[in-house]
Write a structure and sequence with these properties.
By secondary structure, the protein is of the alpha/beta class. The protein folds into five domains: 61 residues, no CATH class; 233 residues, Alpha-Beta Complex (Spore Coat Polysaccharide Biosynthesis Protein SpsA, Chain A); 101 residues, no CATH class; 140 residues; 217 residues. The chain is 40% helix and 15% strand. Strand 11, helix 19 and strand 12 form a beta-alpha-beta unit. Helix 14 runs parallel beside helix 17. The chain is elongated and about 145 Å long.
């Protein structure tokens, strides 16, 4: 093959010789050799860095002198006139006043930790708060109705360090509600959020507070923030600290965020009051993106966040986290929020610091480009005419469209104006040859042109969007003609009947959910079942709900009373009459509140919003003991276990001696206190045995432990009386709420009925009230009372100290003389207080289509329908 190629070359050479002759052939060969050698040279030079740089330096040295001389000669005549023109312009432009920077004093911080079933993570989380080098903080741990040891862990930290404070929700309402409760309770001027499974680094608060102090007097700065990297769920505090580094974090405004979620909930430190005015987190967003929604609500009102170097903490990626459990819920919310960025939104102009942020993102970006171009043309006009007023050319001002203040400050508008000035002055590249003093003066003129344009843009009107088609981001989101506040499920049907009798077709009716504060008494579920819209209590507390009239029904709980006090005279307060109810006692603090009745002809006032900071963040804590997680699981197993059955609640009055207890074979029973004195009379062991009274338990502890029953249920305050060996799966403990007896929470003499014994059972002057709540939870359709004589005699020979009575003779009020016999203590029964609780229990059962009947032999309890015992327990319940 090589031989053939060489032969071909020789043949080609002879052909060229014959065609071109010896002279032509020689020239062609020389040209080809030169071209190939040059190609080899350039390949070599361009591939060897040293040869490349040497060639460039040599060429620069040979030409720099000539180029420098030529550049200095460009615009020499123009440069000679610049100083005169600049001086003329400066006379007409006033110098700008430098900003007076102020620093805020020390800023205490509220750290809000929402927690639900967080026992595995909470201790590490709170330890990371305790390690902060910035010490002026208070940590609000909000237990959102947990049934594990979450509250116990928080209580331990509360005892260890007074800066920790536990707040317990009355019912589980979700992450946003827990954060809002902390926001509502906080008294510090700044606030940060930290989920119970996440961690702060030790300098987290210090860095963000330091930055916030310098920004405190800039009203548009709502907070400072640092990044929170995502880490595996097993990450420790020390490992989190190792990730802290000098990482810069840019400022965030609406345009910079591009409508996205700029960071998660525990990245920023925020102004507490601004967050309240914004309405806090939206508790209606139960499937996620609630932080994204809040940040955008703030950004669209013109607020911004200042970036702070370093990390705030770490975001531990739990396997059971909300976003990992429900990604579809997050994507649905994401679509709405992303689309919202390109929408002109409705905002509250009294709350906004920059209305331009309500414009669509694309409109603001167009405004930015127009502003840059206006600065260039303004500079050209001023430079060309030597007239500072040229920047006010109507064509330039009409060219402008609204731009957010943050973006205006971020733009180097003075640079654009200088470029225009250089063109107007005819300088071009000759601007590089200006004397330093002249260049500085031109730069100052550029800054003043930029300031003039900013003043003009600031006064550009931002039109209101079409309210029908625009997204409404105002903190106040609902106007209600009739806002119903029901204490219990028993109030719902009467309230709806009364309101529907007078409301017009156009009137809106909704309810206020108080259970997050006071506990679950069934009102929310009853309203939802009736198809009535509801609003969270925290939303009302932050002023997000406007009400024309607030409708209530006695007796009023302390939270309802506070709502009425906040509404004042600007909102109509009306009461649904309930004269037949024996539910209000003079000792109830709310009994003195006077309200007009809801009658035909009533018309609600124009809806008005009110904000409030409640006093009941610790109401439940004062009233209750701890929770016992294993018992919560036992109670969960008992839920609706006896649906459709009848149960007999056994009282201990003298009439029990005349009651045919042999008829109770195969019938579930609930008995109390000293019933062990009559144990041999029952055909079967007692099904559920309950002791509430402290004196009974302390004076009969061993007898109570030895009493054989299927189940025993006690308040958690007796848990320490049992050794681990004495406990088994048949013994449970419930959290007992003693608010009915006072404890400075406003619930003295206020009857309540718990729908969830896993959280609490309410005292009501008699252990029977506890039993009725348990029977409701277990699903019994009929409760049969026996031994409820409802009659007490206090002998003359007793020793009495307040409500505590000590007997000096046989007991005449119970079926056995030793029940509260000589030497035993008991309490004044106060039957009027028992009666109001019986009335409420009766209404609660009837509201759910169930009933309580009285099969007591004789006695004075007439509030319940009388039935024969055998008939009551044997006839099928419908």
């Amino acid at each position: 093959m090589v031989f053939v190629s060489q032969a071909s070359l020789l043949r080609r050479a002879f052909q060229l010789l014959r065609r071109d002759g010896i002279v032509g052939f020689t020239r062609r060969t020389a040209h080809s050799a030169g071209w190939r050698s040059r190609k080899l040279y350039w390949r070599t030079v361009n591939r060897v860095p040293f040869l490349v740089s040497t060639r460039r330096r040599l060429r620069s040295t040979l030409t720099s002198g000539a180029r420098r001389s030529a550049r200095h000669s460009i615009g020499a005549a123009t440069l000679g006139q610049v100083d005169q023109v600049v001086a003329h312009i400066e006379i007409a432009l006033a110098p700008s006043t430098p900003e007076d920077k102020q620093e805020a004093p020390t800023l205490p911080v509220a750290v809000v930790v929402p927690a639900y079933q967080a026992a595995d993570y909470l201790d590490d989380c709170l330890a990371s708060v305790a390690r902060q080098i910035y010490t002026d903080w208070r940590c609000y741990v909000v237990d959102d109705g947990s049934t594990d040891e979450t509250s116990a862990i928080a209580s331990a930290w509360e005892r260890k360090d007074p800066r920790f404070r536990l707040i317990r929700h009355g019912a589980n309402r979700g992450l946003s509600a827990a954060r809002n409760t902390g926001l509502r309770e906080a008294v510090e001027p700044t606030i940060a959020f930290l989920d119970a499974d996440d961690l702060l680094v030790c300098r987290s608060l210090d860095r963000r507070v330091s930055a916030m102090r310098f920004e405190w007097f800039r009203e548009d700065v709502v907070g400072t923030w640092s990044v929170t990297p995502q880490v595996p769920e097993e990450t420790t505090i020390d490992e989190a600290e190792s990730l802290d580094r000098a990482q810069s974090n840019r400022g965030v405004d609406f345009v910079q965020s591009e409508g996205e979620c700029p960071f998660n909930a525990h990245a920023p430190l925020l102004r507490t009051e601004v967050l309240r005015r914004a309405g806090g987190f939206d508790e209606r967003l139960v499937r996620g993106a609630e932080d994204w929604d809040l940040w955008q609500r703030l950004l669209r009102h013109g607020y911004r966040f200042v970036g702070v170097a370093g990390i705030a903490g770490v975001y531990r990626q739990r396997r059971a986290s909300m976003v990992r459990r429900d990604p579809s819920g997050h994507i649905a919310a994401s679509g709405r929020l992303i689309n919202q960025a390109e929408t002109h939104v409705v905002i509250d102009r009294t709350f906004a610091v920059d209305a331009a942020a309500s414009l669509p993102l694309s409109v603001i970006n167009v405004g930015i480009r127009r502003l840059k171009r206006a600065a260039i043309y303004g500079g050209i006009g001023v430079g060309t005419s030597a007239d500072a007023l040229a920047v006010d050319d109507p064509s330039i001002l009409e060219f402008l469209t609204p731009v957010t203040n943050v973006e205006f400050a971020r733009l180097d508008l003075a640079k654009a104006a200088r470029a225009g000035l250089n063109r107007g002055l005819g300088l071009g590249v000759a601007s590089g040859s200006l004397e330093p003093g002249t260049a500085t003066r031109i730069a100052q003129i550029g800054s003043q042109i930029a300031r003039r344009l900013r003043e003009e843009v600031a006064f550009l009107p931002v039109e209101e969007p079409n309210a029908e088609s625009a997204v409404d981001l105002r903190p106040v989101y609902a106007a209600v003609d009739y806002l119903l506040i029901a204490e219990t499920a028993a109030d719902v049907a009467p309230m709806l009947k009364a309101v529907q009798a007078i409301a017009t077709v156009d009137d809106t009716v909704a309810y206020l959910d108080l259970e997050v504060v006071k506990g679950d008494e069934g009102a929310t579920a009853a309203f939802d079942a009736a198809g009535i819209d509801g609003h969270p209590f925290n939303h009302f507390a932050f002023g997000r709900i406007e009400a024309g009239a607030v409708v209530v029904r006695r007796p009023l709980g302390p939270v309802t009373a506070e709502v009425l006090a906040v509404c004042g005279e600007s909102v109509a307060i009306v009461e649904v009459p309930a004269a037949e109810r024996e539910l209000e006692l003079p000792c109830n603090a709310s009994s003195a509140i006077e309200t007009p009745s809801l009658t035909p002809g009533f018309s609600p006032s124009p809806p008005t919003a009110r904000s409030m900071v409640t006093n009941y963040g610790r109401l439940l804590l004062k009233e209750e003991g701890p929770i016992h997680p294993p018992s919560a699981r036992l109670l969960d197993e008992l839920r609706d276990k006896h649906r459709g059955e009848a149960v007999v609640i056994v009282g201990n009055g003298p009439s029990l001696n005349d009651t045919p207890l042999e008829q109770l074979g195969g019938v579930p029973t609930i008995a109390v206190n000293g019933i062990f004195y009559a144990a041999e009379r029952f055909p079967d062991p007692i099904t559920y045995y309950v002791v509430e009274d402290t004196s009974v338990f302390l004076e009969n502890t061993q007898a109570i432990k030895d009493f054989a029953t299927q189940y025993k249920l006690f308040p958690t305050l007796y848990l320490d009386a049992f050794s681990p060996e004495e406990l088994d799966e048949s013994i449970g403990f419930f959290r007992m709420n003693g608010g009915f007896y006072g404890r400075d929470t406003g619930t003295l003499c206020h009857p309540r009925f718990s729908m969830d014994p896993r959280q609490r059972l309410y005292c009501g002057q008699s252990v029977t009230i506890i039993n009725l709540q348990l029977a409701y939870w277990m699903g019994f359709s009929r409760v049969v009372l026996i031994g409820m004589d409802f009659s007490y005699t206090i002998p003359d020979d007793v020793d009495r100290e307040g409500d505590l009575i000590t007997s000096n003779s046989d007991d005449v009020n119970h079926f056995h003389p030793d029940y509260f016999g000589k030497g035993k203590s008991w309490k004044d029964p106060k039957l009027d207080r028992v009666l109001v609780n019986y009335r409420l229990a009766k209404e609660m059962f009837e509201a759910d289509g169930r009933e309580i009947v009285n099969a007591t032999v004789g006695g004075r309890l007439e509030i319940f329908r009388r039935m024969d015992l055998l008939e009551a327990v044997k006839v099928p319940v419908t």
